[in-house]
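[step 3/7] fold_predict: job queued, chain A
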Amino acid sequence: MISTSADSMTLKNRTELKSLFKNNTHLSANHFVYLINSLLNKREDKFHGVWKSKQAYQPGDVVYYDGALWEMKMTHEICAKTDEEPGKGDQWKSSLKELEHRVDKLQQDLATLRKEFTDCKQKMELCWKQLLRLIALLLLGVAIAFVWLFASLIYHLLTGAA
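[step 4/7] structure written:
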């Protein structure tokens, strides 16, 4: 078991952590300790926890609100107001919310396509039924023509031979 004291533990920034995975480095237990503890490095990630009104936010700051992570997109510092929560206006952007909207749109499109496909399938089945009826009528007409030709042939053979 690895034990480290809080005083001796220093947080590694993302660049230092990325360097651990270069050149086929064999990771040691200490490397994993750095990795695990550095995941909590909120300063570098600009993560501020749950969004709060009356708090100042800088461009690039990340907050948690309404079940998603939101990034502040303004070019200047803002003081959050109660009526300007993430999702209202264009100050904040959430990739998760955008994906949810895209998924909703795709589901609507899929439902529309499913209905159109069903309608098309029913029309196709009706066309097949009509085609089969026409083929049956055509075959009946050909059969009648062959019977008539055969009967005419027999008649001419009998009347010509007599």
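[step 5/7] annotate
Confidence is low (pLDDT under 50) at residues 1-9.
Strands lie at 47-50, 56-57, 62-65, 68-72, 78-79, 92-93.
exit 0
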